[in-house]
């Protein structure tokens, strides 16, 4: 059998060390994710780390360092498809970005282990776990800071709910009113209302990345008095 002729104990032990290190380190990263009940938990992070280590280790044994470099490049791009599977968009919110980044990091840990850089894999694991745990209080503290529309950079839009018969006229009036308030419009759309067939929603997205809330309140109050307008408001969403 070719297996008996080619089997080398030292190479096999080297592979076991690489896979074992990837398993343990991936387990440490995944345990924190599992504790916080994230979509990609303990098993997923372990499998990502071990899988990356296995591919890199195989390339190391077959083609040496050059082969490992090529495989690592494919792992870096390929893990993106797995990460995309845990990212979900709910309205204006996007969830799962941190979980996807953690999976990417687990793959990096596995690549280090597969390339026999176990010390680097351990160091990277420490940084990944620190990023997911030690930075959490800082993130919470920043999130509790009151949102200041005047100093923040965000996307702002004014939304009107009106009768479809007066949509064109109100669209022009809204654009003129915003420009008179020195808030140029980047785009303005007329959408069919989900609640009534004879109603539309006019959405004007502003060019400005910061606003004075009081000024937009005045614009909205003025538009709400126009004939045909049922409801008017303005909203904001933070940039990516």
TrEMBL record:
UniProt GO cellular component terms: plasma membrane
Membrane topology, as annotated: Multi-pass membrane protein
Transmembrane regions listed in the UniProt entry: 12-30, 42-62, 68-88
Sequence ranges assigned to domain MgtC/SapB/SrpB/YhiD N-terminal in this UniProt record: 19-139
Domain MgtC-like C-terminal: residue ranges: 156-234
Major place of residence: membrane
Pfam families assigned to the protein according to its UniProt record, in alphabetical order: MgtC, MgtC_SapB_C
Subcellular location(s) per record: Cell inner membrane; Cell membrane
The entry's keywords: Cell inner membrane, Cell membrane, Membrane, Transmembrane, Transmembrane helix
Function: Virulence factor required for growth in low Mg(2+) medium and for intramacrophage survival. May be involved in regulating membrane potential by activating Na(+)/K(+)-ATPase.
Family indicated by similarity: Belongs to the MgtC/SapB family.
Xref: PANTHER family: PROTEIN MGTC
Protein name: Protein MgtC
UniProt organism field: Rhodopseudomonas palustris (strain HaA2)
Higher taxonomy: Bacteria, Pseudomonadati, Pseudomonadota, Alphaproteobacteria, Hyphomicrobiales
């Amino acid at each position: 059998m070719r297996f008996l002729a080619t089997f080398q104990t030292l190479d096999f032990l080297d592979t076991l060390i690489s896979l074992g290190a990837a398993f343990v380190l991936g387990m440490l990263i995944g345990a924190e994710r599992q504790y916080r009940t994230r979509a990609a938990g303990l098993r997923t992070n372990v499998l990502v780390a071990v899988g990356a280590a296995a591919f890199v280790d195989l390339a190391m044994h077959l083609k040496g360092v050059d082969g490992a470099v090529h495989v690592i490049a494919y792992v870096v791009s390929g893990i993106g498809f797995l990460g995309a599977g845990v990212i979900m968009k709910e309205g204006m919110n996007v969830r799962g970005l941190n979980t996807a980044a953690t999976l990417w990091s687990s793959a990096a840990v596995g690549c280090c282990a597969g390339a026999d850089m176990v010390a680097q894999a351990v160091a990277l694991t420490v940084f990944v776990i620190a990023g997911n745990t030690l930075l959490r209080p800082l993130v919470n503290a920043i999130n509790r800071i009151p949102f200041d529309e005047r100093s923040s950079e965000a996307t702002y839009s004014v939304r009107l709910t009106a009768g479809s018969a007066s949509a064109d006229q109100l669209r022009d009036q809204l654009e003129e009113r915003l420009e008179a308030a020195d808030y140029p419009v980047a785009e303005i759309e007329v959408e069919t209302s989900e609640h009534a067939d004879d109603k539309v929603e006019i959405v004007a997205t502003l060019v400005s990345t910061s606003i004075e809330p009081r000024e937009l309140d005045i614009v909205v109050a003025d538009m709400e008095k126009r004939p045909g307008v049922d409801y008017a408001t303005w909203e904001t969403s933070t940039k990516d």
